[in-house]
Design goal:
GO terms for molecular function: ATP binding; ATP hydrolysis activity. The protein is of the alpha/beta class. It contains 10 helices and 10 strands.
Length: about 240
């Protein structure tokens, strides 16, 4: 392996049940890595474990060459991670959330750069979370993942609750940030984004790797997205798992 993030035989348990089974993946520096799978396939659990929000029950997790499988805090410090949008405290404003994570708002503005325009963030800074719609909360949660200035960021289905214009603007802004060196890992339901924006990825089924999606596969997918979508949906319907 030769990546900035390297998982080997990673397993995750929740409430005593194993929900991720022996996942191996490599994320190259300055790339966009996408995870897809049906609801309950293990995407969120895997990302939360990678970000240090859940323990790893087994396997290896190397970030920037350092073994962190047994160090949840170490993993949490390496990644920007968006809090669940529906869990943001109603009694805080957008700027309060960002200042809690990133400190001085001047520094936060610098770190967010053009992302704040793509998110339509300025009008939300002084808005109480309790007065925000689901889409507004999602925009603030995404901004929170970048407020700390991390070089590696994990987003769990970032396009949920966003309208088509916001989705387009955010996807373009994220791609530009990756081009400039960001390492981005996202769970996705949108096969179009996976094919057109991601550099590599994995399909999960029942907590296992169904198929690895390398650069060559996604390049072909971008050229024929309808065929890729059909093949992907067929796999998700069947829940078939190929050897990883």
């Amino acid at each position: 392996m030769n990546g900035v993030v390297e998982l080997t035989d990673a397993t995750v348990e929740r409430s005593g049940q194993r929900v991720v089974h022996g996942v191996t993946l490599t994320v190259s520096p300055g790339s966009w890595f996408g995870l897809i799978g049906a609801n309950g396939s293990g995407k969120t659990s895997l990302l939360r474990a990678l970000a240090g929000r859940l323990p790893l029950a087994g396997g290896s997790c190397r970030v920037d060459g350092e073994e962190l499988a047994d160090d949840r805090n170490g993993r949490a410090l390496r990644f920007g991670f968006s809090p669940p949008a529906d869990k943001l405290p109603d009694a805080l404003r957008g700027r309060d959330i960002l200042e809690l994570i990133g400190g001085d708002m001047g520094d936060v503005h610098h770190r967010l750069s053009t992302l704040q325009e793509a998110l339509g963030l300025p009008p939300l800074l002084d808005r109480w979370i309790g007065d925000c719609s689901a889409g507004m909360r999602q925009r603030i949660a995404i901004a929170a993942a970048f407020a700390g200035g991390h070089h590696h960021v994990i987003l769990d289905e970032p396009f949920n609750w966003l309208d088509p214009v916001a989705t387009f603007d955010l996807r373009r802004a994220l791609r530009d940030m990756v081009v400039r060196g960001l390492t981005l890992i996202t769970a996705l339901h949108d096969l179009g984004t996976l094919a057109s924006a991601c550099d590599a990825g994995l399909m999960l089924a029942d907590g296992k790797v169904a198929v690895a999606l390398g650069e060559d596969i996604l390049r072909v997918a971008a050229q024929n997205p309808q065929a890729f979508e059909q093949q992907t949906i067929d796999r998700l319907r069947s829940g078939s798992v190929a050897p990883s």
